[in-house]
Design brief:
Length: 253
């Protein structure tokens, strides 16, 4: 992908303002521990700033979840203001009932109950405007049944509210040698296309709502081709979330 395309996507993101009477488009991330939720936030921050960012604390491996419950992240612009979208990063969705975030907690976050000590009903600004499932490429085929059921429960709650949903498959370079050699091969990879089809079949997510991404992990500088995938996904997230906002007749719904 050319640098021109990256610049064009950057400009579209920089120019974005929600059309409805909300301060920010709210993006809620969920998925298993170590899937790359926090890393995706850092990667978006890196792509937008042109330097590697590590504000969201990412798990070092796929063990216990690192993020505590649900945290909100804003990304600062060059003019010291903030971009017109925020991320809600949640704890990992784990198999056992005693570990990780509970499905009911994610449902509360979807409905806007993310502020400690809130006393009034959540406004449209508080609620999630798009739900993003994040899963690792090497785990797509081996997610246990209990975790899949939890994911489907979360998806059903969002569906009932009309909230759009997409899935991100991360760590694609580790799953495919062709992609590790050249990230531009992401959507050309037969293996990754098979993983997308498996995710669609197992989780009930349409194939055109599943995207591939490589998060920044050990890099010390940003890269145009990596940025291109990240910004392409971010643009889709904004588009789908904006469609949802435009469908809301009352900003306090």
């Amino acid at each position: 992908m050319s640098a021109v395309s990256v610049r064009a996507r950057l400009q579209l993101v920089r120019d974005y303002k929600p059309h409805k009477d909300v301060q920010h488009l709210r993006i809620l991330l969920y998925g298993p521990p170590g899937a790359g939720k926090s890393s995706f936030i850092n990667s978006v921050d890196s792509a937008l700033r042109g330097k590697i960012a590590t504000r969201a604390s990412a798990a070092a491996n796929s063990g216990d979840s690192f993020t505590i419950a649900c945290r909100t992240y804003k990304i600062q612009r060059e003019d010291k203001n903030f971009y017109s979208f925020v991320f809600n990063d949640t704890m990992g969705l784990e198999r056992g009932a005693e570990r990780g975030i509970h499905v009911e907690d994610i449902k509360l976050a979807i409905s806007g109950h993310v502020k400690e000590g809130y006393t009034q009903p959540p406004t449209l600004d508080d609620k999630a405007h798009i739900l993003v499932l994040v899963i690792r490429a090497d785990s797509v085929s081996i997610i246990d049944d209990k975790t899949v059921m939890k994911m489907k429960d979360v998806r059903a709650a969002a569906r009932d509210k009309g909230i759009p949903q997409i899935a991100l498959i991360t760590k694609i370079d580790e799953a495919c040698p062709e992609v590790k050699k050249d990230i531009k091969n992401a959507y050309r990879s037969k293996h990754l296309n098979q993983l997308m089809e498996t995710a669609s079949m197992n989780l009930g997510i349409p194939l055109n709502c599943i995207f591939l991404v490589k998060n920044y992990h050990k890099e010390t500088d940003t890269n145009n081709d990596v940025d291109s995938l990240i910004l392409s996904v971010l643009k889709k997230i904004i588009d789908y979330g904006e469609d949802y906002l435009n469908d809301q007749n009352d900003p306090d719904l």
